[in-house]
Amino acid sequence: MTRDFKQKMKETAVRGETGALQLTHHATLASCDVSEIAPFTHFGTRTAARTRMSDKDARVISAYLDIKNPLRVLDVDDDHSPEHIADIIEQSHPGLIGDQMEEMRDLEPGTQEQYLIEILQEAGYDGLSYVNRHEDPGSISWMILSPDQICLHRDQQTMTVDPWDMDLDRYIGPAMVMEVFSIDGEDENYEHLVESLVEEGGDLPVVARDEEGWEARWLDDWEPPATVGLFDPSGAYKGFYMSGQLWVEPDARGAARSALMINAAADILGDCPTQNWEGMGFSEAGYAAHRKAYEISLTLKKGLKDKDPGCETAGMNP
Question: CA torsion sign, 279 to 284 to 286 to 288?
């Protein structure tokens, strides 16, 4: 990922409720290259993708999206033809297409999409969004106008999972708990990591944010993958998480803020945040922090499940 990616992610509107970036997913049986994905392709939550494409051989494309000004519309449901999408747009925003609707219907398939894209772009929109009423009801789904808006994260045949879809054993992995495994984030072994977080922190993509403004920011070009830092509401560095190794500065402890980093890593990886498959040592505090993060993820799942999807027209652009 590049400086261009970081700039796009600063401007994208594809975010969750707290304003953090939203990793989106599209399940398909198509084998085309990502650069050839069709306009108006839908991206949404993992649950939505899994519900829509239950075939075990489905290909799952996970990506961040560069959509700066989406037009909110009603749920597009199962008909993804350009004429139906145009009807939904006109139903949601009467007059936006207007007389151009009949002109579009007279065009050949393949040119209708481009005509509709030009209408949206002339109106100042570069994508669509809607409250999904069918797959993962209440979640937000997004539709691109161009494959250039896809910032690819993963393209594979296996569906990744949300943190709450794992059991605790998978979430943490095989563990040995002893104080000898504790770490000191001020040790010289972590000096380079901390320097990178402090120096680059202001430019790093925000992948999780809590209601108080604390953030997990992603070192997207760092190995191991899903290495993140903790930052307070003023933007000051307060800790890191790297493949099961957890450090929170003393003045930031006691509020389960480590869970913000751990679950951000779980979302990026779509699997065990510790990347622990064969066994790993944890201090008592480190293991407790992972257990707490897992419990928080279950609470988050319940909150999403209980949430009222609300009125589909609420918050629509004029």
Answer: positive
Listed in sequence order, the residues at least 6 apart from 168 whose beta carbon sits closer than 8 Å to its beta carbon are: 291, 294
Residue 280: which of 225, 237, 230, 242 has the closest Cα? 242
Buried-exposed string 242-267: b where 16+ CB fall within 10 A, e elsewhere: bbbbbbbbeebeeeebbbbbbbbbbb
How many angstroms separate the CA atoms of 91 and 85, rounded?
Answer: 10
Give the DSSP H/E element, type plus range, for residue 142. Answer: strand 140-144
**141 and 174 assigned to the same domain:** no
- pLDDT of 25-58, one tens digit each? 999 988 899 999 999 999 999 999 988 776 667 8
Range of the domain at 37: 3-156
Helices (H), 234-313: 258-269, 284-306
- The residues, ordered by sequence, that sit 6+ positions from 189 with a Cβ below 8 Å of its Cβ are none
pLDDT reading at 310 higher than 70? no
* 21-22-28-34 Cα dihedral, nearest 10 degrees: -10
Would residue 248 count as lying in a domain? yes
Count the domains in the chain: 2
